[in-house]
User: Fold this.
Amino acid sequence: MNTKSKTYIILISIAAVLIATLVFQVDWDARAVRKQLSGLVEVIEKEGRVSTFDSLARSRKFSGYFAENAKVEYLPGRRLPADKDALSAGFLSAWGQIETLSIGLSRLEVDVSESRNTADSTVNASVSVQFTAGEPSGDTQSYRIKWVKVDGDWLIEMVISMGRV
Assistant:
């Protein structure tokens, strides 16, 4: 075997070890929870006027991120209805009053249980909103989110507002 062949074998072996290390050290469930949260943010964000059809589609997508009878506290002491249909209708009503809405997430931490069926996460959400009638406003809140795995999908079971950051 010549030197060139040995070098290729060594490089391929090192690459295989690095790839295997990455694959086995990644917490795929925590990654899936992060992806779900990012998807939810994309559904909620708004840039200007949106058609009625798009609004209805987004309201259905919005409720799809939540488990049945999820408890959602968006501000301390202020909750959304627990029923998925009511969540969808509430989203549609609120979203219709908003001209633009952007959300930035920071300090996202995800802790998946040993059973791999539940997870807890904490996140700071910075929101900038422009209502159709009114001045722009913004706020940053901290949230604790409880997740449950249903048929392979991570769904929100509970959102608890931890207050202003």
